[in-house]
Design goal:
Largest sheet: 3 strands, mixed
Number of helices: 3
Radius of gyration: 13 Å
Helix content: 10-25%
């Protein structure tokens, strides 16, 4: 939710977060961490904008607390895997990912929010 990298609190909804923390992991070791804005270059909010931003940074997996069907589809079209079940700090989510504790989502595993 902010630019604090690994110490950022996880945003509860993928498309609404202000920032993404990109963590480069190799053999379960953190190689680098950077934070990028979730602001589309077109200054337009749409379901595909965040996936385009992430794709431009060569992201291959996204860790989420919640996500709707259209954003999940947009990520899947770009071969970006989506894992659910994160809470707390970004560092906790990365640890859970490295330890295989997160569930990879399919198109059937989306948020049940009424606004999607």
């Amino acid at each position: 939710m902010n630019e604090s990298g690994l110490e950022s609190d996880v945003c509860f909804h993928y498309g609404s977060c202000e920032y993404f923390t990109i963590v480069d992991v190799s053999d379960k070791n953190i190689e680098s961490v950077k934070t990028i804005s979730n602001l589309s270059p077109e200054i337009e909010h749409n379901c595909a904008a965040p996936s385009k931003i992430l794709e431009s940074h060569n992201v291959n997996a996204v860790l989420v607390a919640g996500i709707g069907g259209r954003p999940l589809m947009s990520l899947a079209e770009k071969n970006i895997k989506v894992f659910a079940g994160i809470t707390g700090k970004v560092s906790n989510a990365v640890d859970d990912y490295n330890n295989g504790l997160l569930q990879e989502l399919s198109m059937n595993g989306t948020c049940n929010c009424s606004h999607h």
